[in-house]
Amino acid sequence: MDTDTRKIGAFLKMLRKGKGLTQEQLAEILLVSGRTVSRWETGTNMPDLSVLIQMADFYDVDIREIINGERKGESMDKELKETLSQVADYSKLEKEKAAKAGNIAFGLAFGICAVMIVIQLMVTGSLVTVIGETLTLLIGGVTYIGIMLYNGTWSTGSRVKSTPKNDILISVVCAALFTTVLIFCYSQMGAKTEQMVHIAVLFFVGTTIFGFATLRLLDYFNRKRRDSQ
Rounded CA gap, 195 and 203, in Å? Predict the structure, then answer.
C-alpha cells in the first residue's frame, strides 16, 4: 500500500494543534525550520526516521500511527522503538562516513592538481600555460561542492564545524599559502620588491574575504538544503 503523505500531514497537524503549538514553536523543539514543518503537514515532504521517532515520543503516540496517519489505540513496543532508533543512528553514521570519505578523496585530488599547476607555473614562469588546467580544476571543485550541497551532506563531510571563527581561520591560512606561492612566482619572473608587496597585500586581503564569504555561503545553503529535506 502506498503511503498517503497528505493523510500523514493532516495527522501531524492535528497532533501539533493538540499540543497548542504553532509551526514555528514545534520547529524550535525539533531543531528544524518552520517551513520544514509546513512541508510535513501539507504532505510535500516527510520527516526523517530519526525525527519520526522524536515526534512519536513528543506526542506520545505509536510511530505506526504517524505512518498510517491515524490513531490505532496501540502503544509502540519499547524494543521496536529502540531498534528503529539504532537503525536511524546507523543510517546517519553511514551517510557521514561516506561524506567524509568523499571530501577527503576530493581534497587530496584537488591538492595534488593544485600542486602540479604551481610546479608548472614555477617552471614555465607563464600564467597562460596553466589557465586551462586551473579552470578545469575550479569547475570540477564547484561541481563537487554543488553535489554535496544538493545532498545536504557538505558539513557532515568534514570534522571541522563551520563557524565564523573557524571559517575566518581557514580563510587566513589558505590565503597566506596562496600569497606565498604568488610571491615566489612573481620573484621568479623578476618582479620588483615594492610591486610584489603591493600585489601580495591586495591578493591576501581579497582572497581572505572571498574565502570567508564562500565558506559562510556554503554553510548557509547546506543548512537550508537539510532543513528542506
Answer: 12
Task: Determine the Cα–Cα distance for residues 11 and 55; give it in Å rounded to an integer.
Answer: 12
Q: Residue 145 sits in which domain range?
A: 96-159
Q: For residues 73 and 215, what is the distance between their CA atoms, to the nearest angstrom? A: 49
The pTM (predicted TM-score) of the whole model is 0.46
- Residue that is last in its domain, among 22, 42, 76: 76
Q: Where are the alpha helices (DSSP H) in 125-163?
A: 131-150
pLDDT digits (tens, 9 = 90+) for 48-64: 888 888 888 898 888 88
Number of domains in the chain: 3
The owner of cell 600569497 is 179
> Of 116, 138, 159, which residue is a domain's last?
159
Cβ burial 1-21 (10 Å sphere, 16+ → b, else e)? eeeeeeebbbbbbebbeeeeb
Question: How far is CA 16 from each of CA 27, 46, 50, 84, rounded to the nearest angstrom?
Answer: 11, 15, 18, 23
**Residue 181 burial class via C-beta count within 10 angstroms: exposed 0-12, middle 13-18, buried 19 and up:** middle
